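Data card: per-record layout.
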Amino acid sequence: MVLLKMASSMFGRLILRPQLSTLLLSVGRQALKPRVATCNTIHRFQSTDQKQTKSPTVRPTDIITKQNLVEFGQYVGQCMPKYVQKVQVTNGDELEIMIHPDGVVPVITFLKDHTNSQFVNVADICAVDIPTRKYRFEIVYNFLSVRFNQRIRVKTYTDELTPIQSITHLHAGADWYEREIWDMYGVFFANHPDLRRILTDYGFEGHPFRKDFPLVGYVEVRYDDEVKRVVAEPVELIQEWRKFDYTSPWESFPAFRESSTEEVPLKQLEEGKPDAKGPAPPK
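The structure for this 283-residue chain is written out next.
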């Protein structure tokens, strides 16, 4: 009996082992089948149903944003009627405010401290020279409101002799911008803490970005082997090389050169209040 039981148990093990291995293989195959089918299904949907969208080449105009800019420009004109001379929206979403030169500090202070504006970041200050105007220099201030994620452009004007008030006490970042305008255009900023040249060399004469400044300049520099230093001498250039073509490459495309500008109508001042100060802004 003992020998019979031992033989039967051994025979059972021999039979169970291949059955167990076969069972495990079948279970593994069944477990892998859904995964493979799911992966194929996901890949098929991604390859056939995925759509590629292209961004438009022309910047779309948001009507709501434009209307908000128009209303804010009118609001600034009503709050500062003494200095604001013109308000316009260019390229659909760029608000520009033209002011009198005496209103640089009051208007920029209003835009910085007012609750509905908070333009606390000066992004850039630059100048434009247009010799045909009576006030040939146009000073452009670009501000950013981090609170409302909006930008605004303030423009004023001056000539060669009339100074512009500095805004370094309002925006410390305007220091080097005003120094650059003084160096390149010769526009003087009153009450600037350190108004000196920033880009040209020591002893440089003239202002290079003025339209009446010659393209080749007045002096040229070179290294002299005899004196072992850089010397400045009057410019010597052959006459053929002094013929310059002033035609802009954009003259052939006037439709693309001119930007779309829409003037914002300002409400008339009430009777008894002073009119806008100073002459009209240059055109």
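Known properties of this structure: Strands lie at 84-90, 94-99, 121-129, 137-145, 150-158, 164-165, 189-190, 219-224, 229-234, 261-264. Confidence is low (pLDDT under 50) at residues 36-44, 269-274.

See the next section for split statistics.
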